[in-house]
Amino acid sequence: MSTLAVQAVPSVKRDPLPVQLGLTVLALLAMGLFIVLPLVAVFVQAFAKGWQGYRAAVQSPETLSAIYLSLLTVGIAVPLNTVFGLAAAWAVTKFQFLGKNVLVTLIDIPFGVSPVISGLIYVLVFGAQGWFGGWLSDHDIQIVFAVPGIILATTFVTFPFVARELISLMESQGTEEEEAALVLGASGRQMFWKITLPNIKWGLLYGVVLCTARALGEFGAVSVVSGHIRGQTNTLPLHVEILYNEYNYSGAFAVASLLSVIALISLALKKFVERKTGQESQ
Amino acid sequence: MMHTSFRRPSILPGFWPALTYTIIYLSLIVLIPLSAIFFKTATSSWNHVWTVVTSPQVMASYRLSFGASIAAGLISVAVGFLVAWVLVRYEFPGKALVDALVDLPFALPTAVAGIALTSLYAENGWIGQYLPPLGIKVAFTPLGVIVALTFIGLPFVIRSVQPVLADADQELEEAASSLGATRWQVFTRVIFPLIRPALLTGFALAFARALGEYGSVIFIAGNLPMKTEITPLLIVTKLEQYDYAGATAIAAVLLITSFILLLGINVLQRRTRKFMEAA
To answer: pLDDT of B130-173, one tens digit each?
Structure first.
């Protein structure tokens, strides 16, 4: 390859060193200013009152109840959306049928809806003046401004995460392996557990992690349907807001730092999954 | 058989259960609740809806939301292009870490981003303290809204441009430069046309997300009526006043705008994909 003719032309891939250096420094400065600095600020301010203050904020009963409610929400919303993601990806990627593209577009809708609207729609359906409002109040059931509303809104916001990861992954894998297994006499269940699931495990894991991270961190939608009752209908992000509005900055940032750690873990896992799937496809 | 025309035959099991479950769950969680916005709007009188969505306070919020989203989108395009270029073309220590951090705004809860940015740009903040001598005020001004929306928008542009830039055939550039093009000509005539659709997609994605964004903005915006109130905030404000009809009318405007944007993005992405396959 390295003939004289090729070497005579200056390679455009390599910009001159000063240009490379200058652009790299500029890009790193921009990343530092826009993205890294806010993250650093969270942790520095979380410890503004020292380790003692941090522990007090994180271990306060209100924080613990917010952690509990956030985990409860995740515990319901994420499994629901995972089962849905598997079913949707199976139908959409392994079969050809009419209206498939429309279905895929509809699944993505929650990504395009403002979080505030994601909460509002459940108020319109289950609120006092909503479609089922009269019936619900007759039976003394409260959905919005209570825990069920928080779970519903979170489910809506995180709806496409697992499905989307699986659809793009399974689209590239095709159907040959599953067909071979069936032809060789495997049952549908054996095919799923021995062929499909091992093939998609990393993508599934990443989808679940993304879904979990977003479910824990959702603010706008949950804020609309939450009753904002301390110790009862406050998730972690809502608790951050309350502490912040009470000028308890170090407390707000301490709770925020918990959420930031989860965000960082999800970023690390993304790199890990990319490396894994990259190795397997080679 | 009835379904032969509906779907291509396959020996794989589970089509009907999977599809049925998908459609029922999609309808229950997404489609039916979302349709409530339009049913609710339809039950109000047209005059009332029009009065609400064109009231001065709401108009001011459109100007801020659209203006700040466009400004943040443009900044994201400029900065995002630079970062994507450096990440794809150059080698430097810590590159994998920087690449991973690009997704931070996707992963960080919006409320956390909101209070972090506010503390940075407040008058006693790490950045904010240096701004008043320059005559700039960021926190609690429209500039603060732009800062927050840029934080949210940046990864959309970087992640749109990166794969296209990595796939771009460098033989084209080498051909151009061996035919005597200067570096600047190569950039403007070869590279830029190649990544223009991806830049546009990134801008549209960032813009669409910025229009509906709530958590990262409300802390730094200060929410002064007519000055720094974004449209999603007005929906919340109306809801807190139990003005469901008003909140829904504004939501319908926002929702329709988002759907039109998403449709446009879909077309753009399809064109980019065709373009990349052809190349």
So the answer is: 998 999 999 999 999 999 999 999 999 999 999 999 888 778 88
B168: contact with A, CB 8 A cutoff:
no
Write down the pTM of the prediction: 0.91
Q: Which residues, in sequence order, are CB contacts of B152 under 8 Å at separation 6+?
A: B72, B105, B110, B113, B206, B209, B210, B213, B216
CB atoms within 10 A of CB A50: 10
Residues in A 114-153 with any Cβ partner in B closer than 8 A: 114-117, 120-125, 127, 129-131, 152
The neighbour count for residue B242, using CB atoms within 10 Å, is 11
User: Rounded to a whole number, what is the distance in Å from the CA of A183 to chain B's nearest CA?
Assistant: 9
User: Looking at the complex, does the CB of residue A227 fall below 8 Å from at least one CB of chain B?
Assistant: no
Could you report the per-residue pLDDT of B88-110, keeping only the tens digit for each? 999 999 999 999 999 999 999 99
**pLDDT at residue A282 in the model:** 55
Cβ contact, residue pair B82, A270, below 8 Å: no
Residues in B closer than 8 angstroms to A45, CB to CB, are 119
Q: What is the DSSP string of A105-153?
A: HHHTHHHHS-HHHHHHHHHHHHSTTSTTHHHHHHTT---TTSHHHHHHH
The rounded mean pLDDT for chain B is 91
Residues of chain A with pLDDT under 50: 1-10, 12
Phi, psi of A163 (to 5 degrees): -55, -45
